[in-house]
């Protein structure tokens, strides 16, 4: 069988409470909120070159939040500065700054314990090398 997958349309995280998660992603991480539908318990944020969607578990979407190993890596200009800023705001750092020849990274967790990697490539690039491939 060939499903003919074309691309990533969005990244999805199940959350326990949008009223907690939306401010975290919008205000703490600074992502642009593009859509919030409280009736369907769904929010979407710009996370170029894709979209980060958050949804509360419901009978039509029976998934539960938590530290199931899935997460998202977000490009930042300075991992160390981002970690310190988030720590100053009371965030727990799950993985302290790690420096490698190709990148720097650290990890925090969102309010539902989804891992979020703060990442900076040494060559200054971010996202897919060619988003049209």
TrEMBL record:
Top-level lineage group: Archaea
Pfam families on file: Glyoxalase (PF00903)
Residue intervals of the VOC domain: 7-121
SUPFAM superfamilies in UniProt: Glyoxalase/Bleomycin resistance protein/Dihydroxybiphenyl dioxygenase
Listed transmembrane segments: none
PROSITE patterns cross-referenced by the UniProt entry: VOC
Protein name: VOC family protein
Species this chain originates from: Halocatena marina
